[in-house]
Amino acid sequence: MSHSLTDILPAPELDLLSPMLTQQGETWTADFRGLKLRTALQPIYSISHKRTVGYEALIRAFDNDNAAVLPNHLFELPDTDAENLLLDRLCRYLHIRNYSGIKDQLNWLFLNVSPRVVTSGSQSDSFFGALLKKTGLPPHRIVMEIVEQPTDDAERLKDTVAYYRKLGCLTAIDDFGAGHSNFERIWNLSPDIVKLDRTLLTRATDDQRARQILNGMVSLLHQSGCLVLLEGVETRDQAMIAIDAGVDFVQGFYFRRPCLELGELPHTPADLEELLQEYKKRKQITQDPTQQLVNYFNGPFRRAIERLQDGSLMSQACFELLNHPAVSRCYLADDKGIQIEDTLVSDSAIEKRDPRFRPLENTTSADWFRQQYLRQALAQPENLHVTTPYLCVTGAYMCVTLSLAYQHKGRLQVLCCDILANPHQTP
Predict the structure, then answer these.
(1) Which domain holds residue 327?
(2) Is residue 358 in a domain?
């Protein structure tokens, strides 16, 4: 016969937990199963603001010999849901006690909430409201982090998140991008902040495709109305990847390890100014090839348009362009984005075409108006435009597109030319 948590043990309130806490100077510790619990804080930085905007509270346990005990071991100690709830609340109590003593009236405190507690505990967490009232810490300075993993009670989780939001706290999804992560959780819970799992960053460090996926995921989360935090930043290169991905916040050993000496935190800012200056220099270097691409193809491109305006056939007009080894195809579109005539494919591209994508090859009368390069060319005629690398739908390969709108018999037409982003890939 199943029993609810309240049948097993009354919810541990402040009066029950207070005797488990001890104040030593300005710092509080807690006792649990013979272990001493301490608060460690790790700064969270806003890249744009170039400063700390919050701290994640992490529990650190020590035995009687003051030897560190792994957090996993600590959280394996509870034998029942009730004791698990007690430990969770004890940790939160300890963290808020310690954070309330720091002379910081602005930044957030990120608190982890056990999914088991969230789904089995009462949504009306009167304990937490009473705790904030007792310590005087405003709820708007609290970010409740929920670890991203499956739960048997999605509705209870949703209600709990709604409760913390109603209380005035911010909510965050932790470890997004690992394990069972999916955007359905984002849609259901509408968190204020999404913390991306460090495995995404690890993959992006060595894999350009993974880096593009990371950047796309950040963009999607922003469109979903979420701020994005990338955790686990351990190297300078990873910090640059985080900046380039467009995340809002960063956290990790590269900036600062979790610190038990809480009084030192305000005096250890990260040098984000230097990182941003380096990013700007790198960006200029990586953008130069794009500008060089425009400069290099400007002559052949405009000569092709002159021939088209003089009545030459498409194959004659684009002969010079198509002979370049990096050019995969050329095509024309009208002022509505509808393709005129067939696509011209270079000989080298024909030899390397992947037969698996043959259904996508015929683009007669295709509508390209949705493509930014088409709309941009129509908006600024006579200017040669170039895209950033993207996946070409006609062959599922990465390319950049040059486009230029020009007058032909009183109407605008757009000449487009696809260039392989990586000349060694198969178009």
Answers:
(1) 288-420
(2) yes
Classify residue 339: in a domain, yes or no: yes
Dist. CA 95–CA 26, nearest whole Å? 13
> In whole angstroms, what is the distance from residue 172 CA to residue 191 CA?
5
Within a domain: 276 = no
CATH code assigned at 263: 3.20.20.450
Distance CA 60, CA 39 (A): 6
Q: 148 and 294: one domain?
A: no
Give the pLDDT confidence of 311-327 residue by residue, as tens digits: 999 999 999 999 999 99
Global pTM reads: 0.80
281 domain-assigned? no
d(CA 302, CA 318) in angstroms, rounded, equals: 10
Q: 247 with 231: CB under 8 angstroms?
A: no
Nearest alpha carbon to residue 189 among 142, 216, 234, 225: 225
Residue 190 near residue 162, CB atoms below 8 Å: no
Strand positions, DSSP E, 264-410: 327-334, 339-345, 385-386, 390-392, 397-408
* 354 shares its domain with 399: yes
Q: For 189-242, how does the pLDDT look when each residue is reduced to its tens digit (9 = 90+)? A: 899 999 999 999 999 999 988 998 999 999 999 999 999 999 999 999 999 999
pLDDT tens-digit series, residues 378-419? 999 999 999 888 888 887 778 899 999 999 999 999 999 999
- Per the structure block, which two tokens stand in for 364? 């007669």
